[in-house]
Amino acid sequence: MTLVKRVVTACSHTDRKYYAFGLCKYCWKREYYKRKPAKDAARKATLLRYYERTRKQTLARQRKCYASHLQYSRDQAYGYRLMRFFGLTFDEYQTKVAAQNGLCAICCRPSVKKRLTVDHNHTTEQIRGLLCHRCNLVLGLIEESDTLALALAAYLNKWELKCLPSNPHSS
């Protein structure tokens, strides 16, 4: 029987507990499996068999957990954005939605695909109300200008009167 003399090098993980030969447990196992590839292959085969045996149950459990926590996660993330940008908690936002009956403050229609967005004055940072995405976009495009909004309304009224009688589908 011959003795093999190994060079012992301490691992760089000084924060981990000493395991053997100057190495932490993680580094020792890595070195062990490098020296014994047959053991490493057997370990990987065992892990693969376990995965194949429990795969369906594990994936079903993950899907169920994901589905049950999805809305909560989205609400929580939206709550963080509300607090960061507007200083508004998610509960306060829900109260405002209930006060507006879930309707946009301008067009009085419910927001179908997206949540109602928080409308605020960019100068004073005061929250004015909740708008649907479309109304918020229009308000942003006219740059909250009263004169531009009135000019836009006058333009629409002028053309609405000219185009009304020529609608071929009205019967």
Compose a concise summary of this entry.
The chain is mostly helical and 171 residues long. Helices cover 57% and strands 8% of the residues.
Secondary-structure element order, N to C: EEHHHEEHH
Query: What is the percentage of strand-forming residues?
Result: 5-15%
* Number of helices, where a helix is a run of at least 4 consecutive DSSP H or I residues: 5
Radius of gyration, in Å, reads: 32 Å
Look at the structure and give the mean pLDDT: 85
Structural class: mainly alpha
Q: What strand line-up does the widest sheet have?
A: 1-2
What is the count of structural domains? 2
- How many extended strands? 4
Helix content: 55-70%
The coarse overall form would be elongated
Whole-Å distance between the termini? 105 Å
* Major beta-sheet overview: 2 strands, antiparallel
> Would you identify the regions where 5 or more consecutive residues have pLDDT less than 50?
167-171
Write a structural description.
- There is one protein chain.
- Residues 167-171 have low confidence and may be disordered.
- Helix content is 57%, strand content 8%.
- The chain has helices spanning 25-35, 37-86, 90-99, 133-141, 146-163; strands at residues 18-20, 23-24, 117-120, 127-131.
- It is elongated and about 105 Å long.
- A two-stranded antiparallel ribbon has the order 1-2. Strands 3-4 form a two-stranded antiparallel sheet.
- It is mainly alpha-helical.
- It folds into two domains: 18-87, no CATH class; 102-159, His-Me finger endonuclease fold (3-Layer(aba) Sandwich), CATH 3.40.1800.10.
